[in-house]
Amino acid sequence: MHDRCDDLSTRAACRQCQGASATARCGHGRLLGSGPRGPPSAPGDDARSAWSPAGGARQVPPVRTRQERNPPVMALPSLPRRSAPCLRALAAALVICCIALGVLASPSQTPGAHAEENCGSPLQCLDFTSLSNGRVLDVQNGSLGDGAFIVTNTAPGHHQSWRLNVDPADSSFSIVNNATGKCVDIGWPALRQQTCRGQQSQQWYFQPVSGATDVFMIRNESDHSCLDLIAGAQYDDAWTGLSSCHGRANQQWSTVPEARNLAVEHAARRCQKDASTCSWAAKSETPAAPLPTVCASSVWFNNTSGPITQTFGVQKTTGWSNSLSLKMSGGLTSGDLTELAFKVTLGLEGQITQVWSGSESVNNQVTVPVPAGQYGWVTLSVLATKVTGTWTFDARGLPWTAEDTVTVPLKGSAAGGATHYIANTHPDFTPCA
């Protein structure tokens, strides 16, 4: 008997931890039943038994007790006694194996990130597919840390769900991974994911590709260069980078159609800052006609016994609107996109002096006599023409176009129509709508 435990004993302990019915011998370096083949030793064998490899078997039958003549049916072979150091080593090995197996069996834990299924809008859960290799924008090796390369992989990959954090000022956005919570950033030799900090290198905007509704170039705000599949690589783990925009397939990415609204709104803001980046070509113009009356003030009640003259502060409005984009329409209505409005009015033959400048022309106030016990309010009737035409954006780079119908408010027309405020009074309350 040896007072040691060899590697086989440790492996036997691990198998016991896993529930396997393996047994090992301590100090003999082999499993029971292994080693050179020969007749097994029976319990109680002594000098009366002999084995001669050369001369064959010659055994003297041992004296057998009653228990040996009638052994229990389910008797199992017993292991040799182990010394205390051996048992302690086996126990330690058993604990280590069980701990290791428990760690391997436990579910993997990842840092907190936004759940991919938490999609309130299409811009919160989207992917980007390269038109060059058909693969999807991904984080290399599923890394959760800063500095991991942004690559393309066959779907399903590692972390291919993204969301856009949009800047309402100009509709640019950061591209945030829904699994890692990190932003696509400029890097060398490839784009990387980094902690989101809002710097220009992490801000992007869309530019539509002509002839498609859901294909875009993705341009960086820092220098207007394009997100690029490097060398048009046709394999998984292909790196992405940044290069001058040329519009070929390795710079084209398909995503949700809602991205087009962001493209229009960003282009409109850019046009407002630099008029040379856009142009307008009118195709048709409708005759001047009044638009539906809109409320221009709050509703006021005269709770006295006699008439009162009330001066109403009218809500600022220009009457402008368009059909291309709600946000762009809001910019025209509020007067924030005056450069775009000016481009449209240049197409109105002889009517530019008739364009209505908005409520400032009446100093934002209207005086109304309100009888006792009645309500008073102000509405606006805008005379307007609707001009259908085409916007051309990025006129000095890779131009793209968008059809639009712009409503242009007019002060008056040759037919006698005019834009005017209307004073209203009534004994019954009427919601101003």
From TrEMBL:
PROSITE patterns: RICIN_B_LECTIN
Signal sequence annotation: none
Cross-referenced InterPro entries: Ricin_B-like_lectins, Ricin_B_lectin
Ricin B lectin domain mapped to chain residues: 124-256
Region (Disordered): 28-76
Name of this protein: Ricin B lectin domain-containing protein
UniProt organism field: Streptomyces corynorhini
